[in-house]
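anyone seen this seq b4? input:
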Amino acid sequence: MKNKRNTNLITNTTHPMAKKARLAARRTSKRRGCRGIDALAKGLKQTIRRRRLRLERRRLTPLQHTAKLRRLDRERRAARLRAASLRQKRLARKKRIAAKRPKHYSYIDCLRDEVPEPTGNNGTTLYQTLMVGGMTAVTFTASGVYSDGVSFLIYNHWLYPMMFSISFLVRIYISGPLTRILGRRLIDGRLQGAGRNMANVALGTAVLSPVTGAITTLLFAKADSPDDYADAYLETLSTTMPISVLASLFVVGPLTKLIFNNRVKPADGLRVLKILSDHACSFARVFGF
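predicted toks r here
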């Protein structure tokens, strides 16, 4: 009888399993003398059996699978810890570099009260000089022009050094200490940021403006009696106080802080003042002395 052809065998000769089956069939036929379809079927069975055994050897037991998961978890944790350590080192390095660089402030930082004011003697003296000079230029010009018109800038500009000296002494010995005492009791700990900045400006203006307003009234008001002087004083104060608050909050204060912190070092305060004193004669000639 003729052997029936097995139609369940792999017919694709390029398939990897077919190649392995042919190789196994050749080895089996050489060993046992089998030929043809029987040798091919036996080789295919042996190949499938070997493949199944390899898969069974690779399959892990539950204990081995649990140990492998634990090992992978430990490796992932170690990798995360290394990455976090590297990030912390980079951040610390950036902070060290940023601490060595001088910080440059912006106008918004001044409005938010994020710019520190000087505390040393040199820095305080120079800072107060810049602040008083700016405020005197704004408020005294507004009062003079309001009283005498534009001709004040031509004929009475010699009054600026005198008003600067008076305002500087008042700020150093009266307004400054009183503002610090009231600020510690009324503002510190209650307000932060822009609100604290506005409160400090309003408090400083409320302490300084009455004194400078009285002096300005004596210079410009034509009062023959105490009542006339009082009326002129109230009128001058109602004009200079709002101007002082706005100028100190939006113009003079921010510009002084920016110039002092971004361009002038506190250690150079006395040196800058010495330069100003050395050229005092030139500045006096500008004002007509």
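DSSP finds eleven helices and no strands in the chain. The longest helix spans residues 62-100. kinda curious what u guys think
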